[in-house]
Amino acid sequence: MGPNLVLQRNWEQVRLDVAAACHSAGRAVDTVQIVGVSKYVGPELAFELAEVGCSILGENRPQSLWQKCDWFTTQPQAPDVAWHMIGHLQRNKIKRTLPLIQLLHSLDSLRLAQAISEEATQAGYVVNALVDVNVTEDSTKTGLPANELESFMEQAIVLPGLDLRGLMAMSSLDGNSALARREFSQVRGLHEKMQLRFGKQLANWSELSMGMSNDFREAIEEGATLVRIGSRLWEGVLPQNA
Q: What pLDDT shows up at residue 1?
């Protein structure tokens, strides 16, 4: 079976658009990675996305992540994929989820951080995680309020088995380009503030997961290193735009 031509075209266009945004921001293209959001599709289409070149797949629900990872392992010559958990992770699902992922984008509470630390320490591995921060006034979004970030960091940074790599954030759902850029700028400022505050305790503090299909350009302008692209990739592939 050949590549999914619509999906291949979408992927190449997203890559070009991300590259153009990097050039516009005066940044090297390789400073931004694309996380292909596969939450909309089943394992087969996620596999096809990986086949056309997307090497990082992001999932919102643990059960969907488990299903896709299991399916990928049954496929001969499966492409090499890094799995990222970008949605909320409940503490009762960490045991099965953590060994499958290379990065957790959604660390949003001290209780979750402590549970991850305990599981990772017992199992003998380290979990790479981004702290989910909510700089919008949208109460439906997860994430730590900006004014609680430093206190959280003080307590989470010393937990064994947990490597804090940076921040994750979303812009306001009904916002415009200017608002998105202001919010992403605020997140970048928080990222820099934490680096200054905690210094060498944050040896790998280099990631900013910001921006989705509708606002990745603004995110890249403000320093995003990971952009989470979903709906743009699935245009014309799914019956309805996700």
A: 52
> Residue 227 belongs to what H/E stretch?
strand 226-229
Using one digit for the tens of pLDDT, what is the confidence trace for 203-219?
A: 999 999 999 999 999 99
Report yes or no on whether pTM surpasses 0.85: yes
Contact residues for 35 (Cβ-Cβ < 8 A; gap 6+): 56, 57, 58, 84, 86, 209, 226, 227, 228, 229
Q: Which two tokens stand for residue 166?
A: 């940076």
Helix spans in 52-148 (H): 62-73, 94-97, 110-123
* Cβ atoms < 10 Å from Cβ of 89: 26
- The angle subtended at Cα 222 by Cα 170 and Cα 59, nearest 5°, is 35
Per DSSP, which regions of 40-185 are E strands? 56-59, 82-85, 103-107, 127-134, 144-145, 162-169
